[in-house]
Amino acid sequence: RQMCIRDRRDFTATVMRLAHKGVLRIEASDPFKDVAPTWYLSVAFGAPTGSLSALESSALEILMGHSALGDSRSLSQLKQRAVDQPEAFVESMSAWQASLGKACKERDFFETAGKRAQKVFLIVAGVTAVAGIAIAIITINPIPAALALPTAMATTLVANYLPRRTERGNNLIARCKGLRNWMRELEKLDEPVSLSPSQWGELLPFAYEFGVADAVSYTHLTLPTTP
Fold first, then answer.
1. Which terminal CB of the chain, N or C, has fewer other CB atoms within 10 Å?
2. Is the pTM of this model over 0.70?
3. Termini Cα distance of the chain
């Protein structure tokens, strides 16, 4: 993945990518009448796990643990495992997100000077807030805190805009916006777009990341016809 949106959508999109690659199988049980099916996940036999990236391998281990090939887990079992071991689950997810953030930083999407300036501004904001509160406590006067806290918040807001994207980062953002806008327009098209199952599988994780998965549906996509 080339995306760097820091939230849980990243993990879900990675799982969708694993399913598209044929590594992760997602299957439903045979439902009885008027009964919702149970969904099961398993690592497929002969899955190309050796070609996975470090982030993909880590996501697969978080999701499936050290289960054997073909050994399935239901969604309710996975949810219960997270409930029974919340600290381990949160720790593993935090570590995965940290690895994702590190991978993004290594791709140099932002200029170094801007990131350094951001750190300085954030330090200044923290010192200003702490100093204002300390002075207010010592002098028993709320005015220093009332002045310092808005100043610290404003400094933090400015710091968020200091990192500037590199040419590589701007090109990536432009491509992502173009793809997102195209996906949004699918609902307005009179004719469905002809895509193969493989192309559909490639698009779906991006559609989920962009929050436009409803627009990219089988209603608007068709399989190419063979001559």
1. C
2. no
3. 34
